[in-house]
Amino acid sequence: MMLPGSRRTEGPYEYTGAPIDVAGPWITRKLVRPTRSARSTGARGARTASPTTSGGGGDTPLDHWSRAHPWHELLTADGWTDTGPSGCGPHCTQWQHPDASSPRSAITHGDGCTEGYTPGDDGAYPLYMFSGSHPTLEAGRAYTRAQYALTARYGGDWATFHREEDTASYENTGLAELTDFSLEDFMAHLSDPADTEPQETPAAEPVTASTVSTPATTTPTTTSSVGLLAGMTEGDFWASRDVLTHIYRFALARYASPWAVLGVVLVRTLSRVAYNVQIPPIVGGRASLNLFVALVGDSGTGKGAATATARDAVTLPGAEIEPHTPGSGEGFARLLGHWTKGTKSTPAELIREYSAIIDLPEIDTLAAISARGGSTYLSEFRKAYSGEALGRRNNSDDRSVIIPSHTYRLGAIVGVQPNRSAVLLDDADGGTPQRFLWLPAQYAVPRHPDPAPPAWPDPINPVLTAYLDPVKLHTGNPVHELVLPAVAVEHTRDIRWRRMNRETGKDLDAHANLTRLKVTAALAILDGRINPTDDDWDLAAAVLAKSDATREECTKAMQQVAHEANINRGKAAGIHAVAQNAIIEKAATARVSTNLTRHLDDGEWHSASELRRRIKHSDRSYVGDVLEQLRALGQIEVRDHPTRPGEQVRRTPPK
Q1: Is the distance from CB of 397 to CB of 363 less than 8 angstroms?
Q2: How many CA atoms lie within 13 A of 96 on its CB side?
Q3: pTM for the complete prediction?
Q4: Which residues contact 30 (CB under 8 A, 6 or more apart)?
């Protein structure tokens, strides 16, 4: 609540603080519920409505008004256009308002929404606004039906809203005025132990609206199953920065996953950064910006499309770095250096490359190479991630290719099918999967995205050219240590302290913080800066959260593969056991049949119990079945025992 100051001769008081947001529902509900005295006396028992919220148990005039005005009626009456399903739920619809060019100006959510939206007291799901071009509605905010009508139609004037919409007619009680609601009443509500303010779930690194600004000209949709972090949805992430919005829209226009395209863009960006640009020695020594990305998806879901789309989406300075696929661990070093042949007059020379990208479209290639006896493929991957020395000496020292540590930039893009990801996940002890950023290549693209990809206006900020030219580094340029935000430095030191003291340490998260630092640097460079900020650090946390979720899908897929393999092995074992039992039973039946026939050769009558005693104990269970078979074949005849209960059998006499 804001109360105006008293008037003075110098003029009225003016508010000079931060922008004022709308009060949350938890506090507006406290303003309108009956006071303690009213509960006991009934003096104000009829006061159930609020002009700013439908928080009166769902039975206020405003709730009734809202239920009588569905979103489709409200929006079409104001000139909005239904542009089809949004993709985040079976009853969620995207809308285009009259002043917007994008078909995703806003989304009305409904039952089955996967974004976490729930209905309010009026039983209706909210509208989430993306477009910033609406004259009164704000981008990045959710509206109830009443809030929408109040803001879009009446400019926030509640009196006009109630008069024009005739809200009082929706309930006999009408809307009570709040003129007699005292400060004591308000304080009594705040102290009510049954009415405590809801607490938000704590998060280690929250990304909230205070740290992520939403450009007014962007309209990415929130087609996400879950939020990335507390307070941030995927829509918030893609709308937080012009370059991210561009990548998102470009990817959808090419029917590619925005996450996969972003991963490739990050690898390509850091592969252009000179190797002397390094992460400072917060713990241990300096760290390399080499980044590896695993693009996760079933066969044919667009891992290759994401790589091609990324090259067209963002223009980088300098010559394009063509990706290669080394055929062995030694091939890592040969990507960055090779010897000339040499002649009698010209000695052989080691020709250096200072940046390279490894491209493995199929994880099976990595599995096949790493499975060879004595293969160093995965160990070279691990060394390259940290910028360690690559290669090893052979019998001819003058022909060995040794790439010194921190004198190269190497990125990697690996296509991973979830049910074939064992080659990476099974090397967790060695640290291979922890060094990858796992991003989905499969994405629910709207049926009709933008018809053409938007043009990226210019290459990366020319100011960064000195840092984006690896070829110049062999002249001996000094090391440039990134200036990281204080929160990133403190977080890195805290994680290291915890691991050193055995207070934390999931194997699959061992290198997560270093990967986050690398993504932080890449996001800063994409935004035209060499030194990251708090916003870059927070956005990198969102990318890592997506990576963790994607890697977990691979882990579950491999667990399912193992489960099915166990079932198949069990079935095979069962079939083998059945066949083995059949063989055992056949042999036992033949053995019992032979013995019984021998005992019946005397032509006399014998009781079944007598015959059973003449068969060894382990075979006696087959006697009844064998006698039935002999009887069916006509080889024995049966009669009732003449002196006691039971039957006798004898060999059928020859005719």
Answers
A1: no
A2: 12
A3: 0.54
A4: 186, 189, 190, 192, 195
